[in-house]
Design goal:
The complex is a heterodimer of chains A (78) and B (774).
Chain A lengths: L1 E9 L4 H9 L4 E5 L6 E6 L3 H12 L4 E11 L4
Antiparallel strand pairs in A: 1-3, 1-4, 2-3
Chain B lengths: L2 H25 L7 H4 L8 E6 L8 E7 L2 E7 L12 H5 L13 E5 L2 E5 L1 H19 L4 E5 L5 H15 L4 E3 L6 H11 L16 E5 L3 H4 L1 H14 L2 E6 L1 E2 L1 H5 L2 E4 L5 H14 L5 H7 E5 L19 E3 L1 H8 L4 H8 L3 H12 L5 E5 L1 H4 L4 H14 L9 E4 L6 H9 L13 H11 L14 H10 L4 E5 L3 H4 L3 H9 L4 E6 L11 E4 L8 E4 L4 E5 L12 H11 L13 H10 L12 H6 L3 E2 L2 E2 L2 E2 L28 E5 L15 E6 L15 H6 L5 E3 L1 H7 L6 E5 L4 E8 L4 E2 L3 E5 L27 E7 L1
Parallel strand pairs in B: 6-7, 6-16, 8-9, 8-14, 9-11, 12-24, 14-15, 16-17, 17-18, 25-30, 26-28
Antiparallel strand pairs in B: 1-2, 2-3, 4-5, 4-18, 10-29, 12-13, 19-20, 20-21, 22-23, 25-31, 27-28, 27-31
Classes of the chains: A alpha+beta (78), B alpha/beta (774).
The complex binds iron/sulfur cluster (SF4).
Chain lengths: 78, 774
């Protein structure tokens, strides 16, 4: 069950828009920086297929400039 | 979902979030997240064990979370003054490689062309028999050992004792030759004593950080984040002086680019400005410095069996001043492509008596055919201005490997070294013989093969048995296009001890399964002279065995058992205690093991229960004994040397046939040849393969697009890799850059085996290549 964390960089002045769009996506927790134009995202999905789909969904968000993977863990499926 | 599983998942989510926040902090110093997110990584049911990180020479303290005998998490050690709880992306994921499917768990012996799984004891019998037989038939200089700055202190110590004390050959060298040898030669020629005089606390005091050909944001990320923090907090300034625009350049206050090899000239031009603007700290120089010059036009070591030794001659300040006339900013600007304004700016930073300045460098300066000279020139700048051995003021040579200092340099796994001193010095041989309990005549007084020459000797058939550990020379050596076929020759029996299969294990006759870092106890020594200990944390799989124990077993089988009276359970402690005797005293005393077990390392010289943070400064260093403020006691007269070192061109320059410079290096995701980090899924996905970086103008002129396959060729070999334009880094026009981590794209088939004649460290940063689309 993949758990991943990313740094999401919005386009200029689009941080709130990005945060709003991300908050509608299931399996995605957001930690916005208070003073910089970047958000931490932690995703949790059931399997690699779902993980890939979720990443694709995030990448389609228009206010997103760059999504950088930071860490990836796999936990037991049971 | 069971309760424990759900709390485990929430713990892992917090770890993941924390890793991302840390990564963000390295990019945005002073970044703030809602405070509740930063707290609350509960320890759960994990047992946290302390140690140093497995990867780079920064030597971050880690805590490894162990659950049911398995390493399940890693976090930064908040008690470590090195990293204060921070880690880089490699650090967080380091333990994920140990369960890789292709882990070497059992010994493999090649029989009729195929590898046969063999019990470890039988494999060690074969190694011992073969080594003995080779010595009997061809003499002791027909066997060699090539070790690593990733080996632990006890492993390096036993390797040295085995080769030099038991067998009696100096055929021992290590991969630190490829990264630190010029730093060592620089320290010894200038100060007579190896390793930096300062420590990481310098970061908290300096006003300027001048980085010389050094991409710290990727190679020393945690230290870079300490610099960014100070930049943000106190307005400290980072000046990046390099041949390629990198992540470090982008985060710096100023990026200054120079033409490859001309750093020698720019360094001298800085000295010219210092001298001619009256910025010399006269009292300091008169009291604590001598001036010398050495031989010039030394060649580049391109031919087999090349020999060189420098002949220093004393000069005076006026001679040096005259020499500098060739290096006015105007003259140097013409060929270095650094503007006169920028050269003067750099000089003014060092020239300002009210500013504290750190110089930082690593491979750009060391992997240089004039690497020793380049180290000397940086010291010249700091000595002329007296900016040395004080908090925030000092030249700081960074290391690559996690124990390049602790093992390669302090224990001395180089051909010319002993645990204290060098084989050429009778007193040093006597001390080693006494502690090792061997006849002094057994330790030969002449160095034999440095790394490049060692693998040339394998190719020539002079070395008939070689044993490598924790090292992957067939990816990391320069000019692997010669050494791969050389290692495959039947004339040499090859033993490779490693954790994973690599292109080097591919040519082995015997593969020995080594324990990984946390599967054994050990000690590492980092860039700031900090020695760090860890206890074994988890069991290794199958027959995996610590390298030190494999040496001991082979030594016993060869009849040297009485020299290695250590117990399997406790050998790390027994060996360390024996080794400490070499360094007793105020100049290099090592902390007792009990201290290192309790705290996150200690800096040597460890005197009267205290680490020495700034050497050669009487305020901090109890070894200073001349009654003055500073004492460079590595030299007999207590004075450091300002060296007259000219600019000389690189051995191979771009021409009409090979019109580009090739520069090689590393990326943040991978540790050197990638044998560990490419088995960590998140790192491998982050940087799955190597690439060839172009300046966009060059790419445009050649009609090359991002991702297109390019063949890069030198006079020695070629390699095909995808083009990269405006991605990770930006080389200057006329230069291409490739990282060397990818065993499927062997860029070192292309590089040149030229080296610094004094340090014998190869230059991986400069050779001439052509490029074509395929
Ligand atoms: S900076 Fe170096 S020592 Fe620190 S975590 Fe990263 S790789 Fe490990």
């Amino acid at each position: 069950m993949p758990i991943k964390s990313y740094l999401a960089h919005p386009f200029d002045n689009k941080k709130e828009e990005l945060q709003q769009a991300l908050s509608l996506i299931k399996g995605c927790e957001i930690i916005p920086a208070e003073n910089e134009n970047v958000l931490v995202i932690v995703t949790e999905t059931k399997n690699d297929e779902e993980d890939n789909k979720l990443k694709e969904t995030i990448e389609k968000i228009e206010s997103l400039k760059l999504l950088a993977l930071v860490s990836g863990f796999n936990t037991p499926k049971k | 979902m069971s309760a424990s599983l759900s709390s485990r998942r929430s713990f892992i989510k917090k770890m993941a979030a924390s890793a991302a926040m840390t990564a963000a902090a390295t990019m945005f110093p002073g970044i703030i997240f809602a405070s509740e997110q930063l707290t609350g990584i509960s320890n759960g049911s994990l047992d946290w064990k302390k140690g140093p990180c497995r990867f780079c020479g920064v030597g971050c303290g880690i805590l490894v979370g162990i659950e049911e005998g398995k390493a399940v998490a890693v976090k930064g050690d908040p008690n470590s003054s090195v990293n204060k709880g921070l880690l880089c992306v490699k650090g967080y994921h380091q333990t994920m490689c140990i369960q890789a499917k292709d882990r070497l768990e059992y010994a493999l012996v090649k029989k009729n062309g195929t590898y046969v799984k063999t019990p470890i004891n039988e494999a060690l019998d074969i190694v011992a028999d073969k080594m003995k037989e080779t010595i009997e038939k061809h003499g002791k200089d027909a066997v060699a050992m090539y070790t690593s700055g990733q080996s632990t202190i006890p492993e390096g110590y036993v390797a040295s004792k085995f080769m030099k004390g038991a067998i009696g050959t100096n055929n021992l060298d290590c991969n630190a030759r490829l990264c630190m040898a010029s730093a060592v030669a620089g320290f010894l020629t200038t100060f007579g004593a190896d390793e930096p005089m300062g420590c990481y606390e310098d970061f908290d005091h300096a006003d300027y950080y001048v980085t010389w050909g050094n991409n710290m944001a990727e190679m020393h990320p945690v230290l870079f984040s300490r610099m960014l923090e100070q930049k943000n907090k106190r307005g400290a300034r980072i000046i990046d002086f390099a041949t390629r625009t990198t992540r470090s350049s982008m985060a710096s206050n100023r990026s200054i680019l120079f033409e490859p090899q001309t750093d020698l000239a720019v360094g001298n031009a800085i000295c010219y400005e210092i001298v001619n603007n009256g910025w010399v700290n006269k009292t300091f120089v008169e009291k604590y410095c001598n001036f010398s010059k050495g031989l010039t036009q030394m060649g580049y070591g391109l031919e087999d069996k090349y020999k060189f030794s420098d002949k220093p001659t004393k000069i005076n300040f006026e001679d040096y001043k005259t020499f500098l006339e060739d290096y006015t900013s105007e003259k140097v600007s013409k060929y270095s492509k650094v503007s006169v304004k920028d050269i003067k700016y750099l000089a003014s930073i060092f020239g300002d008596p009210n500013k504290k300045v750190m110089s930082l460098w690593c491979m750009g300066v060391n992997q240089h055919t004039r690497g020793t000279w380049m180290n000397n020139i940086i010291y010249n700048i700091h000595l002329l201005t007296g900016k040395i051995s004080q908090p925030g003021n000092g030249p700081f040579s960074l290391t690559g490997q996690p124990s390049a200092c602790g093992t390669a340099r302090e224990v001395g796994t180089f051909t010319h070294k002993l645990p204290k001193g060098v084989v050429m010095n009778p007193k040093h041989r006597e001390l080693a013989a006494k502690i090792w309990k061997v006849p002094v005549e057994r330790i030969p007084s002449k160095p034999t093969y440095h790394t490049t020459e060692m693998f040339r000797a394998v190719d020539r058939g002079d070395i008939k048995f070689i044993w490598t550990q924790a090292v992957n020379p067939l990816v990391s050596l320069p000019r692997t296009s010669r050494f791969r076929p050389g290692m495959k020759k039947k004339s040499c029996f090859v033993v490779v001890s490693d954790v994973f299969p690599t292109p080097t294990t591919d040519v082995a006759d015997v593969i020995l399964p080594a324990s990984w870092h946390i599967e054994k106890s050990g000690l590492y020594g980092n860039s700031e002279r900090r020695t760090q200990h860890w206890d074994k944390m988890v069991e290794g799989p199958g027959d995996t065995t610590p390298d030190a124990w494999m040496f001991i077993e082979v030594a016993k089988r060869m009849g040297y058992g009485d020299l290695f009276p250590y117990s399997r359970e406790n050998h790390v402690e027994e060996i360390y205690n024996e080794y400490r005797q070499f360094h007793e005293g105020k100049k290099h005393g090592m902390a007792p093991l009990e201290v290192l077990k309790k705290q996150s390392g200690a800096i040597w010289p460890y005197v009267n229960g205290k680490s020495t943070q700034w050497r050669f400064n009487a305020k901090y260093d109890p070894a200073c004994s001349n009654g003055e403020d500073f004492h460079f006691y590595g030299k007999p007269d207590g004075k450091a040397v300002v060296w007259q070192r000219p600019y000389e061109p690189a051995p191979e320059l771009p021409d009409s046939e090979y019109p580009f410079w090739l520069n090689t290096g590393r990326v943040i995701e991978h540790w050197h040849t990638g044998s560990m980090t490419r088995r960590i899924p998140v790192l491998h996905k982050g940087m799955p393969h190597s690439y060839l970086e172009f300046h966009p103008d060059d790419a445009k002129a050649l009609g090359i697009k991002n991702g297109e396959k390019i063949k890069v060729t030198s006079r020695r070999g070629s390699c095909i890799m995808p083009a990269s334009i405006n991605e990770r880094g930006l080389p200057t026009k006329g230069q291409v850059f490739a990282p060397f981590f990818d065993e499927n794209m062997l860029i070192n088939d292309v590089t040149l085996d030229a080296f610094c004649p004094i340090s014998k460290e190869p230059d991986f940063k400069k050779c001439a290549v052509k490029v074509e689309k395929v």
